[in-house]
Amino acid sequence: MNVEQAVIDVMKQCGIDTVLTLPCDRMKNFLPLIPKNFREIPLSREEGGVGIAAGLYMSGKKPAMVIQSTGIGNSLTALSSLHKTYDLPLPILASWRGVYKESIQAQVHFGKFLPGVLDNMGIPYLVAEKPADLPAVRKAIDQSYKENTPYVILFSPKIWEGSTAKEAESAPQPQERSFDLNCSTRMPRATETRFDMIKAIVPYLRGKIVVSNIGVPSKELYAALDQPTNFYMTGSWGEVSAIGNGLAIGQQKEVVVLDGDGSILFNPNTLGMIAQESPENLTVIAFDNSAHGSTGNQPTYSSRMDLELLARVYGIGNTTKAATAKELLSALEKAGKGPRFIHVPVLAKNADVPNIPLSNVDIKKRFMEAI
Predict the structure, then answer these.
(1) pLDDT 10s digits, 184-216
(2) Domain count within the chain
(3) Is residue 65 within 8 Å of 93, Cβ to Cβ?
């Protein structure tokens, strides 16, 4: 029996259309089948995949993740504060390391205790050890979407033993490549607050899909322009651009992300995943106050670097700076192929605005109905 193909068939039967992946050698004969049957989004970090999957789902897609079980540890905070808090589904097909014929000691501790971790997190899971478990795998994937919850399927390496799947071919060798970057940059002095900037671009944001960063930025957006097409984040720091990436991949309308220097520096490889997928309908506005504004203006190290240059090094070609509200509105209105990255210096000052009077689930429901 070709077990790898049988798992692919189960995923198809469940309606999965997009698969986010990070490899494990125990799944090396399974992974090459994914791009032949689904849209594959290779990841550089599992946590970023959680954000992309959220955006994909809210745009009408049906994603799944295929990762190594250790990556679940990297994703627990995002799964808790995003998927469990907003009631979002995500089937995670994980290669369960550390338990069956494990030769790498570093895999053992987390692998051994992973079922207990999932139990304590309230995340349902299933262990798949043999081909006869595949009907239960299908049920688990369906259950994830029926109950709007992450659902982890732990594939024991034992399940692949005796499979007739074709051995994975060797990877192609890297080719010569070159880059031409102008590294002479200047960071303008901040003269306006983030709230000033947001209020100034309300005419552009009106009617568009807008994803706003956690904490005060979401409250400022709500105060300036509440609309059903706004997705307000209340947790999952570092995930806002990943969610925007997923939304832009999953549908055709323009997506505007309101990100910040602390969030980007916490999860910078999101920029690489944006460049990799290159959705033309995505604009990331990076408000840079060189501070963690929502927690008391503790300094970030963006004061020693250029976030626009960072985006370009990651592969985002359409970048610019906007030091005033007028410049930001002009940059947004300027035609150009996305993804776009606009670096905006702002004063480290928060507006005195009220909390958002919506539950996370209400934010999600209203948002999905609107887009």
Answers:
(1) 788 888 999 999 999 999 999 999 999 999 999
(2) 2
(3) yes
Domain shared by 226 and 362, yes or no: yes
Instruction: Determine, yes or no, domain membership for 181.
Output: no
d(CA 19, CA 39): 6
**CB contact at 8 A, 94 and 154:** yes
Evaluated on CA atoms 144, 3, 112, 106, the torsion sign reads negative
Rounded CA gap, 216 and 218, in Å?
5
Residues 142 and 232 in one domain: no
Co-location of 150 and 8 in the same domain: yes
Give mean pLDDT, residues 330-334.
94
- In 25-133, alpha helices (H): 34-37, 46-58, 70-78, 85-86, 105-121
Query: What CA–CA distance (Å, rounded) separates 249 from 253?
Result: 10
| CA diameter of the chain | 66
- 194 residue type, one letter: R
Same domain, 113 and 219: no
pLDDT digit string, tens, across residues 128-145: 999 999 999 999 999 999
* 19 shares its domain with 151: yes
Q: Which domain holds residue 11?
A: 3-160
- Residue partners of 362: CB distance under 8 A and separation at least 6: none
CATH number at residue 25: 3.40.50.970
Q: How many CB atoms lie within 10 A of CB 104?
A: 9
How many whole angstroms separate alpha carbon 180 and alpha carbon 192? 33
256 and 149 in one domain?
no
Q: What is the pTM of this model?
A: 0.96
Distances in Å between the alpha carbon of 229 and those of 15, 35, 245?
Answer: 26, 31, 15
Residue 284 and residue 288: Cα distance in Å, rounded? 12
Tell me the two tokens of residue 71.
């990556």
> How confident is the model at residue 298, as a pLDDT?
82
The answer to the question of residue 175 being in a domain is no
